[in-house]
Amino acid sequence: MTHESLDDLALAVLAGEDMDAFGELYERHVRRIYNYIYYRTGNHHDAEDLTARVFQRALRHVASFEDKGVPFTAWLYRIAHNLVANWHRDRSRRPVVPLDRNVAVSEVGEHPETEAIAGEERIQLMNAVRALPDDRQQLLILKFVERMSNAEIGEVMGRTEGAIKSLYHRTLSTLREEVKRLEAGESPAASSD
Amino acid sequence: MASSGMSRKQIETLLSEVLKPVEPNSQFVRSLKARLVMYQGGGTLSPWMMLAVIGTAIALAITSIGVLLRMIVGLISLFGLLNNRRQAKTGTRASA
Question: How distant is the alpha carbon of residue A48 from its chain centre?
Fold first, then answer.
């Protein structure tokens, strides 16, 4: 049986001793882990560095991975989440790192004025997203970048589908208020959960 | 600004425009995989692998000792041959 036909959990069981199995898991998840870290750090350099550390740590501990009904992806996201948290702690400040400008203003219209307004809106929105607590940022990344359903996000974040739905609505409300505040020229509010 | 009092729908639309998947550098993806393979290779060897490594090392040592001995024997023979010729020449001159 080829590794491609196996699901993540079966591969994770093999991966402790079979590098090909780990390689298959790597190929399946490297992009999503990279995306998650990229949107949490705001730059490609740190995203590459932390993605490498996530998979090195995963390789070291995959032999002790146990199937507890949680998807393998959730395990990887948890490693990524911890490393990103350490990364932020190392910088000992809330990271309001400007996201690579080409991402924030990638979709522009035909008219320069409209483009400028749209670009500024996006940048303000990204700043508001970055001011959110970790779990809300994670939720938005999983929902919009990874296009996961509430149930899938719940599995990754260890919460119920209902809790995710509720958190999502609260997050949108907070963002709305935050964008309004930023437009009024006020500094970002301290994030609370 | 035009967006003051943005609705939830507008926020969601903007989020879907801003939060888009990015593609990591393909060279980074490949080189990380290669590094991970090396990283795993750096760990302790399995018993079978260890046996194979030791066996190969012994076989190589035996082979190289055999080659070395053959070379030494060959050189000694060559010296002996040259010496015999020299002695044979000196003997012919003396008898003449």
Answer: 14
Instruction: Compare all CA atoms of chain A with the CA of B29 and give the residue at the minimum distance.
Output: A30
pTM: 0.69
Cβ contacts of residue A132 below 8 Å, gap of 6+? A140, A171, A174, A175, A178, A191
Interface contact B6-A176, CB threshold 8 A: yes
> Rounded to whole angstroms, how far apart are CA atoms B90 and B95?
9
Residues whose CB falls within 8 Å of the CB of residue A149, separated by 6 or more in sequence, listed in order: none
Q: Residue A175 burial by CB count (10 A; 0-12/13-18/19+): exposed, middle or buried?
A: buried
> What is the arithmetic mean of pLDDT over B26-51?
80
**pLDDT tens by residue, A61-91:** 888 888 777 888 999 999 999 999 999 888 8
A175 touches A132 (CB < 8 A):
yes
Contact criterion met (CB < 8 Å) for A23 and B37: yes
pLDDT tens, position by position, A164-187 = 999 999 999 999 888 888 777 766
The letter for the amino acid at A117 is I
A144–B14 CB contact, under 8 Å: no
Could you report the predicted ipTM of this complex, rounded to two decimals?
Answer: 0.74
Residue A130 to residues A103, A152, B12, Cα–Cα distance (Å): 14, 23, 16
Q: Among residues A147, A154, A126, A168, which one has the least CA distance to residue A40?
A: A126
